[in-house]
Design brief:
Layout (H helix, E strand, L loop, with lengths): L7 E7 L14 E2 L2 E2 H10 L5 E6 L3 H7 L6 E4 L7 H10 L7 E6 L7 H13 L4 E6 L2 E2 L3 E4 L3 H5 L7 H7 L4 E5 L7 E2 L3 H9 L9 E2 L5
Parallel strand pairs: 1-4, 1-6, 4-5, 7-10
Antiparallel strand pairs: 2-3, 6-9, 7-8, 7-9, 11-12
Length: 214
């Protein structure tokens, strides 16, 4: 059994308001399930030791949908302040002794567990504290973060977010090349969703690049 200090948690950021979609996008059908269920399924088959879902907007309906999932749920009361507020809420809800956290976007159902496992393996084999996937020289999500940075993240400006952490510690970044373009893509608008549904079930939908915190 792993000690708490060895545990790597997944933090799924699922508190957004879905403004561009115009309806709760995480509850939209994706294959035989919803978007949020697909994300949780992918994360659940990875080697993460625990999964925490940060809810906010539409928390009741999303929480009901994932009621049977083996995840811990927390509510970000400040979700209207943006994604970084959910990062802070998620990190604050993890065990103080946990070693690291993978920050995952809830609107990226195309990222398989194998990508997360690649980050975990690379993190455990290296001495780097910030591990990011790279596809064709472009960084994407999720970011795997050593929790030695917890206090520093809490002190970051919301306007800068995690980009500020990466800029402050370029020597501690490990880029992991993956053959998964979905690390650059999300489902944000009706057009994104339409293109995602045109992809093969369980396959690699073609989506728009996301400008996130990483």
């Amino acid at each position: 059994m792993k000690r708490d200090a060895d545990l790597i948690w997944g933090v799924i950021l699922a508190a957004g308001e879905s403004r561009r979609m115009g309806r709760p996008k995480l509850l939209l059908p994706y294959g035989n399930e919803t978007i949020i269920e697909a994300v949780i399924r992918n994360v659940s088959v990875s080697r993460l030791d625990g999964i925490l879902v940060v809810l906010g907007s539409h928390s009741r309906s999303i929480g009901d949908k994932i009621r049977s999932s083996a995840v811990k749920k927390v509510i970000n009361r400040n979700y209207r302040e943006g994604m970084f507020s959910s990062v802070l809420c998620g990190l604050a809800s993890l065990p103080r002794s946990a070693r690291a956290a993978a920050l995952l976007l809830a609107d990226q159902p195309g990222i398989p567990g194998e990508v997360i496992d690649s980050l975990i393996e690379s993190f455990r084999r290296s001495d780097k504290g910030l591990v990011v996937p790279v596809y064709r020289k472009r960084r994407g999500h999720p970011l795997l973060l050593d929790l030695k940075y917890r206090s520093e993240v809490e002190a970051l400006s919301p306007d800068v977010g995690l980009r500020g952490l990466l800029r402050a510690h370029p020597e501690d970044i490990l880029e992991v090349r993956v053959s998964c373009p979905e690390i650059l893509r999300d489902i944000d608008s009706p057009g994104d969703y339409r293109r995602a549904r045109e992809g093969p079930p369980g396959g690699s939908p073609v989506l728009r690049s996301k400008r996130g915190d990483v």
